Amino acid sequence: MVEILLFVPFIVGSFIFVHRNIALIAVAILIANSIYLTATFESSFYLELPFVFDYLFIAIDFGLLGYFVYQGIKHKHNIVLSLASVQIILFSVLLYVMPHSDTPDLYVDKLAIFMYLLVNVVGGIIVVYALEYIKAEETTEFNRNLFVTILVFFLGVMNFLVTSDNIEWFFLFFELTTLSSYLLIRFRMDDISIENAKRALWMNLIGGLSLLVGILLLIYTKNSIYFTHLDSTLSLLPFGFVAIAALVKGAQIPFHSWLLGAMTAPTPVSAILHSATMVKIAPYLILKISYVIAGTMLSSVLMLFCGFVFLFGALLSLNQQNFKLILAYSTISMLGLMILTAASGEPILILATLWLIFFHGISKALLFIEAGILEKVYHLKFIEDMDRLFDKAPITIFIISIGFMSIILPPFGAFIGKWLSIEGMKHIVPLTFVIFGSIILTVLYFKVLGKLLKKDAKIDNFFGEKLPFIYHLTTISYVVMLFISAIFISNITVELLKPITENLIHREFYLVLDGMSMDFGISYLPMWIVSVSLIFGASIPLLATLVRFKGDRVKEYSCAEKLDITFSSYYYDYFEKNMKYLQYGGIFFFVAVIVAGAI
User: What gap in Å lies between CA 439 and CA 316, rounded to an integer?
Assistant: First the structure.
């Protein structure tokens, strides 16, 4: 069944050039197999491919790096050219010094099974959404088919990446995600798209280069390049470079601009990068090394840095008016929190990371596909232009409200993840970052909702909004996933996420299911709170959409003069105007990560 997840995206995806709706077959197979594996998985196991794949992947690696060199030459981009050239040299050295091992290169554990769900279910739905979205793109039919093909291949690359125990293989798929994002971001081939794609390329090549250095140092210190061979007696310097690779991939300051630039691409690209693929490599990679770095200076520096990003990413998002940029900055912020909790190595915080990875994936996928509907159907990108949008798009605004509520309120997993982060945090400075960052993100989402939910008193037909069937199907799929996960949050936590956490920390920890309540030892989550919170969280969007105002709204002492409500954020722009200082801070922390690994 795992082989199906690895190879179906490439085999079936190759036929999408004939007709892109073939992607539906690939998505159906991937989703069904991911769910089946989750339901039937019992214990971890190695998976060995025929020996020819070693040579095939080496050839692909050199071909990929050669393509990056070509892009550097073609676009006269010396940074891309230099980074790709150095990677070719280091990769050649890696092949020369790489020790022989009888350990199979692929390993399927509980974390891989968990990531299959995220990649194939959440990402697969985005591919289905893209089939409708891409129809409105002004391009050729070949390019539309190519776009969907790359999305499906992206899922296959991610499946290989999370299954790779051999870190040299992991490097290949790490860089293939860089290639996928580069091709998708530049899809429209206008000047802005190409510039943003090149920025994403050179920044992520830095991450790949850092990962290569980490692998070479692992060979020098451990004489092994397998995740399952890592232990806490190793030198931390290789993991400093591995952590840098994760931070770049996770768009942490000062490398956040590559993810912001990706917002110029078609919305399915934004959705899949933010929710199911590219950026989730960052917390995943930190989870893979969390046992080794837990309790070290490297862990402390990562927690401090990512707490800094969580807080200031949230502050930067307050000044945005482009809807997709609001979602992008908040993603950068939330990734900071995920890496922070993953780096701690504490069981409760590891559990929080898993909830944040999965629930953030669902919520952001939902919000981005709604952003795409606003863009394609209503030709709206900026919050300031969405005045009284509810009058003509009540269903879309209602769904956006649910998406925001799923991040803000209990018992949805994003809130539970932040709550567990606060409950389990032992360091005062990261704890302060988490508390204030969470408050600011809540302010952000309610602020945006206040604008979107503004409506006229005369709207009568809530279901008058007409959208394509696929838009409704994909939207409803995510909403159902959010509510089912919230209802069974205790069961999912204890039966699915607890075993993953114990596998990562190499020990058991106290977490028991009491009916449908959870006892964490340090805290207790009663089911009645879950139930009440779920009703309350679902009621807010519903009540907001049902409320009607009689006549025009006026302020007291305004002599009955009608005043328009405007969306203004100028008073939040201090941090954006001083962005260079935040970037200096980010560079300082990147250097500190390497230093902490060396000490």
Answer: 14
Q: Give CA–CA dist 107/506, Å, rounded.
A: 16
* The amino acid at 536: F
Answer for the pair 285, 242: CB distance below 8 angstroms, yes or no.
yes
Predicted confidence pLDDT, tens digits, the chain (599 residues)? 889 999 999 999 889 988 899 999 999 999 999 999 999 998 899 999 998 999 999 999 999 999 999 999 999 999 999 999 999 999 999 999 988 888 899 999 999 999 999 999 999 999 999 999 999 888 899 999 999 999 999 999 999 999 999 999 999 999 999 999 999 999 999 999 999 999 999 999 999 999 999 999 999 988 888 999 888 777 889 999 999 999 999 999 899 999 999 988 999 999 999 888 889 999 999 999 999 999 899 999 999 999 999 998 988 888 888 889 999 999 999 999 999 999 998 999 999 999 999 999 999 999 999 999 998 888 888 888 777 777 778 888 888 888 888 888 777 777 788 888 888 888 888 899 999 998 888 888 888 877 777 666 555 555 667 888 999 999 999 999 998 888 888 888 888 999 999 999 988 888 887 777 778 777 777 776 666 666 766 666 666 666 554 444 445 545 545 555 444 444 556 556 667 777 878 888 888 888 888 77
Cβ distance 158 to 123 under 8 Å?
Answer: yes
Using CA atoms, how far apart are residues 162 and 108, in angstroms rounded to an integer? Answer: 8
Grouping H, G, I as helix, E, B as strand and the rest as coil, residue 357 is helix
Give dist(CA 507, CA 499) in Å, integer.
Answer: 10
